[in-house]
Every structure is written in C-alpha cells, then in structure tokens.
C-alpha cells in the first residue's frame, strides 16, 4: 500500500511539472 501512495505522489509531481 505504501508503494502505491508513493507512486501516486510521484505521478502527481510529474503531472504538475508538465503543467508548469
């Protein structure tokens, strides 16, 4: 479960990086 949460945070960071 922890790996899924970490993966989600990384995914959000990449998504926000693309927006910025």
Features:
single chain, 20 residues, mainly alpha, rod-shaped, ion channel, ion transport, transport, Voltage-gated sodium channel
Structural class: mainly alpha
Q: What best-fitting shape do the alpha-carbon axes yield?
A: rod-shaped
What is the helix fraction of residues, given as a range? over 70%
Low-confidence stretches: none
The run of helices and strands is H
Largest beta-sheet details: none
* Number of H- or I-type helical stretches: 1
Number of strands: 0
Mean pLDDT rating: 94
Describe this structure in words.
This protein is mainly alpha-helical. It contains one helix and no strands. The model has no long low-confidence stretch (mean pLDDT 94).
Quick description:
Keywords: Ion channel, Ion transport, Transport. By secondary structure, the protein is mainly alpha-helical.
Detail the topology: elements first, then pairings.
Layout: H1 2-19
């Amino acid at each position: 479960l922890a790996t899924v949460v970490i993966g989600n945070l990384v995914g959000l960071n990449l998504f926000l990086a693309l927006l910025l």
